[in-house]
Write a structure and sequence with these properties.
Strand order of the largest sheet: 1-2-3
Number of helices: 4
Largest sheet: 3 strands, parallel
Number of strands: 3
Number of domains: 1
Order of helices and strands: EHHEHHE
Helix content: 40-55%
Radius of gyration: 11 Å
């Protein structure tokens, strides 16, 4: 599964689809995140007041493989 910024932000901001996204991420055998998506998500979170819960941190943290732009 390749995660994109909108999925990460939906989780972090507690949007209605966040539980389903967290479950899908947790069940995925492999997870990846582009450098661009990681930077965009970090920038968005830094400018917002969020209440990120433990489940979101856990699932997002599992996306440990950051892909280069050549992949």
């Amino acid at each position: 599964m390749v995660l994109d910024t909108s999925a990460l932000l939906a989780i972090l901001f507690g949007e209605p689809s966040s539980d389903a996204l967290i479950d899908a991420i947790a069940q995925a055998e492999r997870r990846a995140l582009s450098v661009a998506s990681a930077l965009e998500a970090v920038g968005s979170v830094r400018t917002a007041d969020t209440g990120m819960d433990g489940r979101a941190r856990c699932c997002c943290g599992r996306a440990t493989r950051v892909m280069s732009s050549s992949e």
